[in-house]
């Protein structure tokens, strides 16, 4: 049975296209209209480049995967080490690929929660490999180094802003002006910055009045640094059902 809790609500979905299907389906199942506008493209690194980088690294005791993309392009580089993950989606990606997760947070989905786990407290002298994109937060590495670990990065993909044509941007603005975009979903600070970079001036001017839904408190803080009065709702987590619940909570007035 279709839940029509989002009837008449248009939601801008900014996740990479290959990761957006579950959220799009959940919005649609709730009666909403999902408008896909990815603000990040994931580009895998050349396998030979990764292999050369791996050759310069030490054998790891623990390998941390920071995202499903890091699993998708880098699980082979876990070797025989213990596997740690940031978030349930990353754990699911590891397990779907036939490997076991050894270290995870039972209740959280970010680096802060993972760092609380007992297995990452006494790591002095242990080699930790972080599999990630070409750049990212330094919290994991900095904290583990402070605890005495030897930390290496293994980049396996790059994140880029999609190369939108002028016609694509104009179409988005027409939808927005027509009232078709009522909520924006943003998963990360990088996604927020990319959205700022690609939106035309009129759409930027509407951000202050368009409800923002995100699972990351850092996104809300960053958005309010630029738009102090932006209506923002923090979702309980990054899962599709959690995001949809947050959208429903922030759109009660719109749906009547």
Provide structural commentary.
The protein has 256 residues and is an alpha/beta fold. 39% of the residues lie in helices and 18% in strands. It folds into two domains: 10-40 and 162-255, 3-Layer(aba) Sandwich (Rossmann fold), CATH 3.40.50.10090; 42-160, 3-Layer(aba) Sandwich (Rossmann fold). The strands form two sheets. A five-stranded parallel beta sheet has the order 2-1-8-9-10, sandwiched between helices. Strands 3-7-6-4-5 form a five-stranded mixed beta sheet. The chain is elongated and about 60 Å long. The mean pLDDT is 93.
Itemize the secondary structure elements and their pairings:
Layout: E1 10-13, H1 21-29, E2 33-36, E3 41-44, H2 47-55, E4 62-65, H3 68-74, E5 82-85, H4 88-96, H5 111-115, E6 127-133, H6 139-146, E7 150-160, H7 166-177, E8 183-185, H8 189-198, H9 201-206, E9 212-214, H10 217-226, E10 232-234, H11 240-250, H12 252-255
């Amino acid at each position: 049975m279709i839940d029509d809790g989002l009837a008449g609500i248009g939601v801008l979905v900014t996740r990479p296209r290959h990761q957006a299907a579950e959220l799009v389906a959940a919005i649609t199942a709730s009666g909403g209209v999902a408008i896909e506008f990815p603000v990040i493209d994931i580009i895998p690194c050349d396998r030979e480049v990764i292999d050369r980088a791996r050759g310069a690294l030490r054998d790891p005791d623990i390998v941390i995967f920071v995202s499903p993309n890091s699993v998708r392009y880098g699980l082979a580089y876990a070797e025989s080490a213990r596997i740690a993950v940031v978030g349930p989606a990353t754990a699911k990606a590891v397990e779907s690929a036939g490997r076991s997760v050894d270290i995870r947070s039972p209740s959280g989905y970010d680096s802060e929660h993972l760092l609380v786990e007992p297995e990452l407290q006494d790591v002095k002298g242990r080699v930790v490999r972080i599999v990630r994109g070409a750049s990212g937060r330094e919290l994991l590495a900095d904290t583990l180094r402070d605890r005495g670990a030897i930390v290496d990065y293994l980049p396996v993909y790059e994140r880029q802003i999609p190369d939108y044509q002028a016609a694509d941007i104009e179409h988005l603005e027409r939808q927005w002006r027509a009232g078709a975009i009522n909520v924006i979903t943003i998963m990360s600070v990088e996604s927020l910055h990319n959205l700022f970079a690609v939106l035309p001036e009129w759409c930027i001017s509407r951000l202050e009045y368009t409800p923002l839904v995100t699972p990351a408190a850092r996104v809300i803080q960053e958005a309010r640094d630029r738009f102090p009065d932006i209506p923002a709702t923090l979702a309980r987590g990054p899962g599709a059902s959690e995001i949809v619940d947050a959208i429903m909570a922030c759109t009660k007035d719109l749906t009547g």
